[in-house]
From TrEMBL:
The lineage of its organism: Bacteria, Pseudomonadati, Pseudomonadota, Alphaproteobacteria, Sphingomonadales. Residues 52-172 form the TonB-dependent receptor plug domain. CDD domains: ligand_gated_channel. This is TonB-dependent receptor. Belongs to the TonB-dependent receptor family. The keyword Lipid metabolism does not apply. It comes from Sphingopyxis granuli. It is a multi-pass membrane protein. It is found in: Cell outer membrane. Residues 1-26 form the signal peptide.
Amino acid sequence: MRTTQLSTFALAAALVAGGWTTPGFAQEGADEAADSATIIVTGTRRTDRTIADSTVPIDVISSDSLQNSGSTETNRLLGQLVPSFNFPQPSLTDGTDSLRPATLRGLAPDQVLVLVNGKRRHLSSLLNLNGSVGRGSAGVDMNTIPPLAIERIEVLRDGAASQYGSDAIAGVINVQLKKSVGGRAQISYGKYITTMEDVEQVANVLPTTGASDNPAISFTGKDRKRRDGETYTMATNIGLPVGDSGYLNFTAEYKDRSPTNRSGADLRRNYAAAGDPREVTIDRYWHRFGDGESKDMNFFYNAGMDVGADWELYSFGSYGVRDGNGAGFYRRALDPRNADWDNGGAPIYADGYLPYITSEIRDIAFTGGLRGMAGGWNLDLSFGYGSNRLDYGVENTVNVSLGGNHSPRKFDAGGMRYGQMAVNFDAQRDLDLGFGDTSLALGAEWRNENYKIVAGEPASYAVGPYFYTNGAGVGSQVFGGFMPSSAVDKSRDSFAGYVELDADLSDMFNVQAAGRYEHFSDFGDTVNGKLAARFEPVDGLALRGSVSTGFRAPGMAQQYFSTTSTISQGGTLVEVGTFPVSSPIAIALGAQPLKPEKSVNFGGGLVFDMVPGLNVTVDYYRIKIKDRITLTETLSGADVLALLQAANVPGTSARFFVNGVDTRTQGLDIVGSYRVPDFGLGTLRLNVGYNLNDTKITDRRVFSAFTAQRLFARQESLRLTDGQPSNKFNAGLTWDIGKFGMTLNANRYGKVFLPDSVTAVAADGNPVTLNNPAIRDDIRIAAGDAPGDITLSPKWVVDLEVRFRPVQPVQIAVGANNLLDEYPDRLPFGLVNGVDYGANNSFLPYSSFSPFGFSGRFVYGRVSVDF
């Protein structure tokens, strides 16, 4: 990020937070917590529906709940507050370090639809590929939305593709922006003060003696302490009146996060020569495993003004900039990826090097429209545009094949672009059918999507003269640039029409029905429907249920993403990589055009709000997804080579997207909230939530000569089904009395299963199928009982914040996220109980699949001024 940009914005934010204010306006309702009487705008287009009256489960997260935390990442806040929402924080996953995926109900990031003010938010351009949760998907970057800009978030936990279109299989997250007059300016600072659980500090290193032995390392017996990850956040929200009833609300936010490092000591030797004295003195924590460095600027506005008595002209939009820096794996001094063949193979970096992947993300969105009433109809016509741009750079690295004298140390590796345009028309009116309130809504949508890959500079992918010598591939180390053959510029259009009916058949019985037709230019038509009902036999006790069909169109990146790397095999250059389904390589391996995922959602539940201030909901869900899109394993071997050669396609291995599996996800959501009556002890609000979730693969596809287990093998299969918490419980309280306030939240994350990377094969070298009873050991491994399997045990994470107002406009807060300094289980390494886990876990001690990350205790302070 340019220094002048940062300096200018930081100065402006500091002036605002330091006391500059507009003429005094009272803030209207921004701090009101949601209750069962809150009017909702998600899940129905009816204008008088409340949380308690909804036919489907909806969580409403208030502005207060989002602000009373040390975190300023919207995804992380939702992970703390919504039981069925999961936001792990992976590391060493390339661009995913800077743009992290989140999930709802254990499904993929691209199987939940995100709206802002009821309008579809554009996807990110990043495709998650490197073994994190959501592998093979591209989601919405919700961390571009500053929490201070949000009035509330409505989380619809039910299939809604018939109402909103593609992606709404798991549900819908609708972010409602502030309209209120007044504002807030705030500055926060925090850092990690933590002790890494079961990761000891090095005490002594003895020099190597043999030609290939590792150094002897002893430890102090004390866990490693860390003080890092300093985070500064400056933000302001200003709401101004426009005319008699118009509004202009603007939010600016700047975040500066320093990197964290939770690596353990690397036990391997670093230098080639035996007895090298540097082996004893070098800092063995040379990896950087944790949060990357990040600098963010985000701007949001939300505006509206009357044009005539019954019409409003409205607009909202955003601009976000994020400059990230994530680390790769350390290349040791003796590593062939550090060999300088211009100088006889001597190390290019004398002590080895840690390459960095930089990411420059630019995110833009604009929506404008006109809404009002005519002829008894509420009408809304809007146009929206959004784009996400990610450019990769690689620093402190080298293209070994070029030689140390001829390779740059910094590369432009290319990037990706995603753009979306949408025109929406919505109409709603109330009907009098003689038996209760009835709402009819209908509408249409046109949407255009565009996806691009931009090639990097030639040196980032070049095949230099030493490709046959170094044995470490070509291109810039840690991230090879996109080649010209990977560059793509593709678009598609879709047209949709929907109708929705919401009727009170009596005082006790409500029915909702919806249908949607949609046509995509790249794969054709889809029709989906939904039926939901709510029955309240006595006041305060209701039953509800829904059944719906849904779909998710294949992502543009899933259809067109391509990246290749070139390696030497037997003196011949060959390509290995990820290929679009339309490429000759993928077709030779049996790839077929991607079809949309299709889902059937069932839900049923109970609503209890007989007691004033108390609301409890219990909901069961069952989601069956057919033709789920997955990324295959990297396919290689003699049969792969034969297929490629028969098709005259170069290369020895490849992977591509397929409609690979059918899945069934079922679970239970329990959510309760209670506003304690006023006994003169201030305002006390309690909330609890519980999610139980289970996903199974019910069928697999077979393409060409490949078995189902080979296309989507054991490790990725079990990560899909068991790589997220099997259950999650949260409980919290917010207490305000006089000038003081407190928020306490506790989350218990259930177990997470990490499968061994053992590949089940028979004696003849072919993959094992589950119906082969002759190979018992392989059946045991394939069925989920491999010797190297690991289960992360359940963990409690507690957050606490205390607030004080010395004078009415000013609030001071201090707190800690992960107050008790909890970590996921330490991963085993080396030889343990007859299983060789290798050396990597010695310096990568925690799993990126941990649902609460692995950073430890974060302590913070915040000062805010209301005006």
